[in-house]
Amino acid sequence: MEPVPIDGGPLTREQVVAVARDGADVTLTAAALAGVAETRAHIERLADAVEPTYGVSTGFGALAVRHIPVESRAALQRSLIRSHAAGAGPEVEPEVVRALMLLRLRTLATGRTGVRQSTVETLAAVLNAGILPVVHEYGSLGCSGDLAPLSAIALALMGEGQVRVKGQLKPAAEALADEGVTPVELVEKEGLALINGTDGMLGMLVLALRDLRALLDVADLTAAMSVEALLGTDRVFKPELHALRPHPGQAESAARIARFLDGSEIVASHQGPECSRVQDAYSLRCAPQVHGAARDTVGYVETVADRELASAIDNPVVLPDGRVESNGNFHGAPVAYALDFLAIPVADVASMAERRTDRMLDVARSDGLPPFLAHDPGVDSGHMIAQYTQAAVVSELKRLAVPASVDSIPSSAMQEDHVSMGWSAARKLRKAVDGLTTVLAVELLTAARALDLRAPLTPAPATAAAVAALRAHVPGPGPDRHLAPEIAAAEELIRSGALLAAVDRRTP
């Protein structure tokens, strides 16, 4: 995999995923390093000045009124990192830690933060060495930066704290020594520059966007399978109907569902005049409207993410003319709102999928399918409790859709009297994405079983490919089996991309 160049300019979402999730290395360009060195000269000039400058010769937050003498400034930076590395709770995922490191590195490389070239190079070296500082779940209010998480990164650069290398827990000093990396001795401005960014919430947003794009494609597929299994009509997915309400996401989902149903013998079997059904239930008929609205939400949030990936978040910031100015760009509201926004369609798409699953299990509404798709109803329970699992997850997703960004708690002796809670919004969105994966996995299992039970009628080539991909890991209809491993197998088929890949090969 090619290294991702860090040149001080914007990163793409694809580059973030490549480094954070896929383990790509980074390279610092000569131009970026030159810009960093040029800006550092301005900071060193201010460090020698009589007039105090926030972050250079003063304390921090509510303690910014204190002027720090020259001989205490290195201690000031060390104390800042040690005191702010105050996280608690479980460790966050390796991909989140790598995203944190990458996005802080990108901002440092813009030349707007005033750090030294050597500090930037050390952060890049630690990232490329696969050294992952231990970052805890709690400690960020999403304002003044993701302080505790980013402080854990900075602490490791100093050779302090704990890190993981290939999953093994080590003292940071030992891990850095093993890789020949010299710990950083922070000087004026550097401690603050290392921690004053929205990098954690942004990294988690970018990763969630990648996952949600794929999951919405899966939702279109499982919806098509359910429509087919429930003897629904494909007429409601015709493009001329969706042109009457020209939302782009709706048109895309309708077109995808129609393509997945193309060539279905099951759909064709009930299209004659003998079919008395006038219209399908909303969970079938309105899938494009709900999935499409989710797609359009993702599109909006991608715009927010791209703007953030072109931003230099620090306070104070060094302007091109050398001025050092305080600002509020560290406030995470733009990202926090986007994270909260995404949690709403995640819950709603999952809720609709659960309704389709329940319909396939209900003998009164499933058009001839056995109760709960059981092999011997009464002796066997079929997918009855799989739907309970779905319902439990959907209920949790509804709770996770409650916004975090409205719950500001003042801090730092009321200096930081309004915060974004963007990190919390990001953490709950990650959990919501996992929940949607589980809900779609259960719908996939149930719809595939229902399609098998429609034999000898055959499904469309695309949906048949989905069933075949699942059957490579999960047997077809039969007496009750241990269902938990089958749900896990369906989840992995979705997460890995193998399900969509199998279907794409058969979709016109």
TrEMBL record:
Identify the keywords attached in UniProt to this record, alphabetized.
Cytoplasm, Histidine metabolism, Lyase
Q: Which residues carry this modification: 2,3-didehydroalanine (Ser)?
A: 144
Instruction: Offer a single GO CC term for the protein.
Output: cytoplasm
Catalytic activity annotation: L-histidine = trans-urocanate + NH4(+)
Q: In what pathway does it function?
A: Amino-acid degradation; L-histidine degradation into L-glutamate; N-formimidoyl-L-glutamate from L-histidine: step 1/3
Q: Which GO terms describe its molecular function?
A: histidine ammonia-lyase activity
Q: Which PROSITE patterns match?
A: PAL_HISTIDASE
On modification after translation, the UniProt record reads: Contains an active site 4-methylidene-imidazol-5-one (MIO), which is formed autocatalytically by cyclization and dehydration of residues Cys-Ser-Gly.
- A GO biological process held by the record: L-histidine catabolic process to glutamate and formate
Which InterPro entries would you find in this protein's record?
Aromatic_Lyase, Fumarase/histidase_N, HutH, L-Aspartase-like, Phe/His_NH3-lyase_AS
E.C. code: 4.3.1.3
Give the EC class as a word.
lyase
Where is the cross-link described as 5-imidazolinone (Ala-Gly)?
Answer: 143-145
Q: State where the protein is found.
A: Cytoplasm
The text of the family note is: Belongs to the PAL/histidase family.
Q: What is this protein called?
A: Histidine ammonia-lyase
Q: What is the organism of origin for this protein?
A: Actinokineospora auranticolor
